[in-house]
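User: I've been trying to design a sequence by hand for this structure and keep getting stuck. Would you show me what you'd pick, starting by listing the structure so we're on the same page?

Assistant: Good idea, let's start from the same input. This is the structure you sent:
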């Protein structure tokens, strides 16, 4: 984070942003938020639990000209690892080999992670800086998801500057297919058990 920034939220609330907030009437509320301590700057236990449940994330980067790019990354729950109170990392599996995020990070380390839990209507935005780590077998071994059929080509290590959790407004509820199937299987087993009991009572 820029050392001239007074609040953690200044990573996003630039003077231009604050000017618009003032014009549209929301600056007073956000100023009170800043006075109460602003955004978190390290990974709390609550955020760590949220991260551990995610199977899908978005990584935002920008090149030296400021052209933004958003890339999806996914894997089994827990594929995004908390290394310490300020550091996240994940194995970057081989994909289409465009290497846009890697190229962006080589000239501009500023990045953001966007985590969305549609089922519980929760979202978390994490600002920071990221770097690509190649050739570190020990780190890749630590980050690889057991039993996941994909080749870890490199690692992305993300240093947290600040993070914020948004309200659930406008987030549609979307259920994980595996969770839905599990609930349906449980329902079917319950129906079969009830039918068996009814048949037994009928026979009696």
């Amino acid at each position: 984070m820029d050392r001239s920034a007074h609040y953690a939220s200044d990573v996003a609330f630039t003077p231009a942003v604050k000017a618009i907030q003032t014009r549209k009437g929301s600056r007073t509320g956000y100023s009170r938020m800043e006075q109460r301590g602003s955004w978190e700057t390290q990974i709390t236990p609550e955020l760590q639990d949220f991260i551990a449940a995610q199977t899908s994330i978005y990584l935002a980067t920008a090149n030296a000209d400021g052209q933004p790019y958003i890339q999806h990354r996914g894997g089994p729950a827990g594929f995004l690892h908390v290394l310490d109170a300020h550091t996240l990392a994940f194995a970057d599996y081989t994909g289409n080999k465009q290497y846009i995020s890697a190229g962006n990070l080589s000239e501009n380390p500023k990045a953001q992670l966007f985590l969305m839990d549609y089922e519980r209507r929760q979202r978390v935005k994490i600002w920071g800086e990221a770097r690509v780590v190649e050739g570190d077998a020990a780190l890749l071994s630590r980050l690889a998801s057991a039993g996941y059929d994909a080749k870890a080509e490199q690692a992305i290590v993300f240093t947290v500057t600040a993070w914020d959790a948004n309200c659930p407004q406008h987030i549609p509820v979307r259920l994980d297919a595996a969770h839905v199937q599990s609930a349906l299987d449980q329902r079917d087993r319950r129906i079969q058990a009830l039918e068996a009991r009814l048949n037994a009572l009928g026979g009696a």
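That's my pick for every position. To get oriented when you compare it with your attempt: The radius of gyration is 22 Å. Strands lie at 56-62, 68-74, 81-84, 87-93, 110-117, 122-133, 152-166.
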